[in-house]
Amino acid sequence: MKIYKFGGASVRNAEGVRNLTNIVSQSGDDIVVVVSAMGKTTNALERVAEALWNNDINKAESEWRDVLSYHVDIIRDLNLSLAIENWVSWEQLKAYVRTDYDELYDQVVSCGEIISTHIISAYLNAKGIDNSWLYIPDVLRTDATFRDAKVDMADTQSLLREQVIGKRVVVTQGFLGGTKDGRRTTLGREGSDYTAAILGNLLDAESVTIWKDVPGILNADPRLMDNTVLIPELTYYDAVELSYSGAQIIHPKTIRPLENKQIPLYVRPFGDITAKGSVIHATTAHPIDVPVYIWRKNQILITVRPKDFAFVLEESLTHIFDIIERNHLKVSLIQSSAVTISVCVDNTRYVAQALQQLAEDFRVTYNENLSLLTIRGTSPEILEQESRNRTILLRQLTRRTARLVIQNVDN
Ligand code: ASP
Ligand code: MG
Fold this sequence. Notes:
It contains 14 helices and 16 strands.
């Protein structure tokens, strides 16, 4: 059994769906096909959720119609005849407005994956590839932490195996889960990779492959840098470090379930089935020998100081991190002195509330619009070059890795 995961960019149009079909048809193994929402659908659905929540029904409805018509075009391009209304109900979504925001968000945003998998499953069938469409909220059991749901691996395992084992091709949604009482949850943005890893783990897959619109794992984001090179082989450890630093190759949570069972993860180019891409596994004979540049954008640097000069590391750490944790802040860097602690976090909608709670007991200052640049395999020359003409608010340096918190970069 193998797991194939296809991201939104890979299935953003009919051409992508045809290509997916080609890849699936060439696999001789049993496979579970994990699919994201098509193209930028998740972003569009976020706008729907936001408008619904603000009671701007007209805006919500017009955004929703745009989402539908984008998919209708793809369905038509594929010569299928399918009714999206059979899979998702606008009336039902509107009914969620009275629940909490995160729950509403998950009900709306999850529609992207429901729609994409239905279309893909139907197209595979039309091309003679028999497959089962699996509604993953029924088997991927999570708690009710909407937008960041925690997976119950034990419950999921038995439910999943029952649905999957013995089937040749299963098509299912990435990113989604479901609570025991049948409410849909999501695992956090870009969570489909994580889904693929969970399925790989629980099904003892031979491998997991992420098909992407890049040649494999590169040493920098080609949209931000010229002359990038492919890294053919990485260890799980490398991959965790890179994805945690913000490399958008794979979701940071992806590695752990695979490492636990020593399942290799392939990152392969969607457009070229003959290319090998990159493999992530336990050890490699070829350590990474090029500098790797990773940008993590939209950061905020929060500095916290006890009001009475208490030693922050001794007396306040637990309290500070409790607030960070409760507000789901994702910490990308920590630095401390005798009486201050600074944390760099992703600037999400929860930050304001966390700042407020911190301010109750501490003096708090912060800087917004920052980027965190991590350079692995750095050198004095590289550091000098990357620092030039930039305002660096904070710098952390180890022998091999440099981390720079930079103001207002717009590359
Ligand atoms: N469609 C979701 C997102 O864009 C999940 C994913 O693509 O992995 O965040
Ligand atoms: Mg996506």
